[in-house]
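#onboarding

Welcome to the new folks! Below is a worked example of what a typical request in this channel looks like: someone posts a single protein sequence, and someone else replies with the predicted structure as tokens. Don't worry about understanding the tokens yet, we'll cover that in week two.

Example request:
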Amino acid sequence: TTHPVQVPDSFPPGANREEPYYISVTVLENSLEYDISAGMGSGELQLLVGCYDWFDADQNTVRVESPGVFDPVTTDIPVGGDEHYSTYQVDLANPTLTSLDSVTLWVSAEAGMDYEGFLPGRPTSIYMPPFDVDVEEAQQGQNIVLVWHPEEPIDHPDRTENNDIEPALIVNGDGEVICSYFWWEQNSETHIWNHPIYARSFDYGHTFQPSELPQWVYHGTDQIEDQCWNSKLTLGSDGHAFHSYWAPCGHTLQAVPLLPVLDETCSHTGPIMENAGEMLYTIDGYPMMFGDQGGTIVMRRGDFPNQAGTMTWPTYDGTPYVIVAEALLNYISVSRCTGKTSDGRCHLVFWHSGLPYIRMVSTIGTDGTTWTAPTSVFDGLAEVWVGGRDPGLWIDDDDGFHVVWAGEYWWGEHALMYGYSADGTDWNEGTSFSNLGVVPVEDGMNDTQVVVFDAFDDTWLFVCYESGGNVYSMYKKFEDEEWSEPIQVNEQYPARVPDLYPNGDTGVVFAYEADDGLVHPDDEKQTDIFFKLAEFVIQ
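Example response:
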């Protein structure tokens, strides 16, 4: 084998090594954005260009340009590579953007100018096909503020003639905000009728539409003071709301909205309890209704479940289970004091008359028939606390436990207390609890409520409570230490027994019983149910 004959003045082999045979581009960063309202663009591009060459790949000059958008940028300093290729970083800034259209880029790699003396002063370059990068719409800075809408009464035909009392709130499986309450009418000097009714909001608590008065469901009594109370709501296995409460004729449960057949809508569950109305459903749809009587907390469990999708409720007395029986006077709360974790276990917090303890019982399984012994949530410090009452409970989406209650100092003042446990078992009095401040109290304090919800990528905590004839609220982000100052929710008239619930979108809805402000015969006070929405908005 012999070498080919050399042609005079032909290029030597080294003449083919100057320009790279392939280049590639990787976009490391693209922050290009265009503000439509301002008509201005901004941002930067950072590219990594790879030059592949047989020899001396680090002796190229990389050039990137986008006519009308970026001035040309060149670099001849490699930032990486090996014997076969070198990489060059190119930074482009100060773009001239006129729209959200993508930007076209041209990339080239220019070789040296020697060519072993054959073509002196004539560099060659390699170009890659042009490619586009996206431009994002500039987002205005989000200023999230809490807006308090004006309070409004929940209206119905007989609102100005009778008392509306004891509201409770929930969001059902269809996203409707439900407010259940009672109105009672006195039809003689001694006899009254208690009517449970409800209103529904289809716009996240901005407005409420009253239901037709369910005249076929009522509770009569010859004692004026025997008014239905301790109104509570929970969701059944089919996403429908169920209303439970104390009635003069027994602990009562009914579906919301009401069905026209009494036996399918209303069920009494055994003896009249001192405090009753709290309820939950097991994951299999069995209702559990709770009440306390003389130091014993009794749960009555339905003998068969709610039929999912039908909203039917069969009449039953239920099977009783004693879940707390001690020498102490144990009371379930007027507040919402039950909750369910994602594993299907049910939980109830309760308090003790004249003692500083807040405690909790939980189901051992998911059928609701077996419960743990009471465990301590808050034991109190003997030298400071002499009472703790009316705990409210909320279990968040991560199965974290949040409780609020009214604590009483030995010198007579009351404080609103908040506690958090990530799993419901680790309660440390040094780190788990916060004193939200001393609050004035008339005739004790009840209906301390807490809710947790997400809005605009933050988790928010709201509490509300009744104090000195008014309803107050405080709130904070979950991760923050400081709470807001107390905010008076009711606007015009003395208010009591508040409830609140996330509206399922951006905020919370409050409902409370308040004087109606009208003049009535014999100067007797009448009460109405008012609601108020507080929601986060972007400004």
